[in-house]
């Protein structure tokens, strides 16, 4: 600390007749640097608003090489004070050697940020960094670091290594299996540019990996390379990913593959055991507007996998009301929502009997959200008709049903019912007026 304060003192003497503002900033820097020994580090003040402080911090960090110091020096390369930039550039020179590879790898974020900064031209520095990391001495460390990276850093290292690879095929094989999705996406077109003898094994292996977004890119790259794409297309037609299936459906007629025949053949085989196989068959059935055999559909609706039951529920038609009503008891809310959406497509006249039976049996046992969803399937005035019917049974709990009727009166104006005949609506209004006259419903209730 004494060294830095002496340096500032000498600087003040050399300035000669300086302005009051410069004196103020220099004195401020001295106060800050005096406190620094007990309250922080040079890295902490390296981005201070006072240029004198930043300059001293950079000088000190140049004398104390470390990964943290390297990150600060890279950031100061874009400082708005020329002297600070020059000091940082000079201090950076000692790091341009393979011995500091790990330090550079730990400083990738500021290196990548520097590429977007334009206060001065940083291209020479960035080029030097890339060439060093691409060198044979650094390549193994950089490659090992790539395997554990994610996000922008992973993309940066992959691009860097791909420019000058020692073994392009091995690099692409690792990239196609990388945990970072964007690296895998970048590896697909790069793999397709290899000679067919190298690219085909890589891409075929990638087709078996998770990630529909990757597999659809791989399939697109594979098709022009394959001498006989039919086996790959037959498998892709039953892929779990809708994107892969849609590409396969587009390519199938262009390669003499009959998608209906592929589905028929699969349906003649034993039921799937894996979730992705179930979803592939159900997905292709949906896209071909075909029908699942009854034993397949029943097994899918009873599957242990929620997504399979959900997909199977979407295939239920209006003429399968018993199955639709049974599916309302599914423990999954996702499946329940699909069933409600399917029932909402059915004419209310076909639903009324089954809905009434369901509500009569399970009204009090159903969770509120499920009960409301089922109840809302009925037209607005059919809802009050049901509630009045429950009230007229004379059973215990009439206070409860009065409360439900009042609730309906409060919210019924929010919906339009073009279905219930006018005469039937008027008869219900009359019943509501009678309940109001008896004092069972508050006089302010809305039912007109």
TrEMBL record:
The keyword Lyase is assigned to this record? yes
Q: Any idea which GO molecular function terms this record carries?
A: lyase activity
Keyword Lyase found: yes
SUPFAM superfamilies reported in the protein's UniProt record: ARM repeat
Its keywords, alphabetically, are: Lyase
Q: Which domain of life is it from?
A: Bacteria
Under which name does UniProt file this protein?
A: PBS lyase
Please tell me the species this chain comes from.
Pseudomonas tensinigenes
Phylogenetic placement of the source organism: Bacteria, Pseudomonadati, Pseudomonadota, Gammaproteobacteria, Pseudomonadales
